[in-house]
Design goal:
three-stranded antiparallel β-sheet, five-stranded antiparallel β-sheet, globular, mainly beta, about 100 residues
C-alpha cells in the first residue's frame, strides 16, 4: 500500500537527462520526456543531468502556473499544445496543455 503525498511536487527517478520545464511521462517506472500526443504526469521543476537522477515533477493537478519549454516561437496568450521532446508549441495537435502567459 502506498502512502498519500500532500503537495504539488513529487520526486521520481529520471530515465534520461531532462531539462527544467519539460513535460514528462512515466515509462517502466522512470521519467521520460513526453511526446507531442502524450498527456504525461506534469513538468520537471529542476534539471536531471543523467539517468538515475532524482527530479521533482510539478503534477498537472497542482494549483498555479508553471514554466514549460517552447519548441518554437509562441504568441502570448496562445493555447499551447504538447510538442516533441516534452516541449510545447502553439501548433494545434489535439493535446492542449495550457495558455502561454509570456
Amino acid at each position: 500500500m502506498s502512502g498519500q503525498i500532500e503537495g504539488p511536487v513529487r520526486t521520481f527517478t529520471a530515465g534520461a537527462a531532462l531539462g527544467e520545464g519539460i513535460r514528462v511521462t512515466l515509462t517502466s517506472g522512470v521519467l521520460q520526456a513526453a511526446g507531442a500526443e502524450d498527456r504525461g504526469i506534469g513538468t520537471t521543476v529542476a534539471p536531471a543531468y543523467a539517468s538515475g537522477d532524482l527530479v521533482g515533477v510539478r503534477l498537472w493537478n497542482a494549483p498555479g502556473t508553471r514554466k514549460m519549454v517552447a519548441g518554437g516561437a509562441v504568441t502570448q496568450f496562445a493555447l499551447v499544445y504538447g510538442a516533441a521532446s516534452g516541449k510545447v508549441d502553439d501548433v494545434a495537435n489535439g493535446n492542449p496543455v495550457g495558455v502561454a502567459l509570456e
